[in-house]
Amino acid sequence: MRAPAKLNLALSVGDLREDGYHELTTVFQAVGLYDEVVLSRAEELTVTVEDGPGATGSGDVPLDATNLAVRAVALAAATTGQDPRVAVHITKGIPVSGGCAGGSADAAAALVGCDALWGTGLSREELTALAAELGSDVPFSVHGGTALGTGRGHQLTEVLEQGDYSWVLAVSDGGLSTPAVYAELDRQREAGTADVAADPGEVLSALRQGDAVALGRALGNDLQQPALTLRPPLRAVLDGARQLGALGAIVSGSGPTVAVLARDDAHAGALAAALASSGICSDVRRAEGPVTGARVVEAR
Ligand code: C5P
Question: Which parts of the chain register pLDDT below 50?
Fold first, then answer.
């Protein structure tokens, strides 16, 4: 199985709901940076994790029942009446706790993978409903492409779009906790110091026209300011990317990964090289978007 990273091209955060989640309007795009997930029948339900080529951070992924892929297997088994004893092996290509939905990708791959392993023939709707129980981003990780997310971010609508986009992802050492970033936004809003950054309408219009320059200008994320408060060095990554001629640069989701939009593939190569040698981020990865969601790449 293979499941992609996601970026939020616009992330507009609304009110805090009674269930502890925030009302979101977000434009997701799946990009070609992947986790690989291998599922095989086993004596018990287990998970192991390793770093993919060039990646680090797999040591921070929980290996107990809280692992999102393990929860996905358990949920799929309970729903379909199948035996949950599956060995899950994850090779991380997506930054861990990086704001790119790496855990959600693993959960999406596990759901789609169990369905294939067991031949349970779940419909897209059934998979999406299970995905929403596991986390706000998991339905999108199943879906892929580019989509508008509302509710907790789990209700997806197709968007009209054209074009492929070349991204450079500036990866930081050490993740950020998503609940901590949302809590910092709430604190800033209460103190009256939060700015409203995201306009999903502008992003949707740029995507409709396939206009990368307009998209670069429209990128916006209400979680960016709180992420910068919690991780001040990210400011240098955003500024550095813009100075190097990026069309736009934005903290991805709750961060700390920064998504940098290039004009095209060659420009992405140049930007990646310049960012890597600048020393302002710990690693850079390149990824094209949009790409499809969680998929079986090889049945063993
Ligand atoms: O749904 P997921 O488990 O990915 O969300 C992680 C955390 O992010 C939640 O516990 C919550 O603190 C925050 N969150 C939120 N509003 C959303 C999505 C996530 O406050 N719509």
Answer: none
pLDDT per position as a tens digit, 77-107: 999 999 999 999 999 999 999 999 999 999 9
Q: Please name the residue whose Cα sits nearest to atom 19 of ligand 1.
A: 21
Which residue's C-alpha comes closest to atom 9 of ligand 1?
Answer: 179
Atom from ligand 1 closest to the CA of residue 153: 21
**CA angle 233-234-236, nearest 5°?**
75
Note whether 182 and 254 are within 8 A (CB): yes
CA distances from 148 to 27, 104, 194 (A): 5, 17, 24
From atom 11 of ligand 1, which residue's Cα is the shortest distance away? 179
Which class for 20: exposed (0-12), middle (13-18), buried (19 or more C-beta within 10 A)?
exposed
Q: How far apart are CA 167 and CA 202, in angstroms?
A: 19
pLDDT of residue 299: 63
Is the CB of 6 within 6 Å of ligand 1? no
Reported pTM: 0.96
Residues acting as catalytic residues: 6, 137
Q: What is the pLDDT of residues 176-193, one digit of tens each?
A: 999 999 999 999 999 999
Measured in Å, residue 216 CA sits from the centre of ligand 1 at 26
Radius of gyration of the chain (CA): 18
Q: What is the DSSP letter of 60?
A: G
Residue 146: φ, ψ to 5°: -130, 135
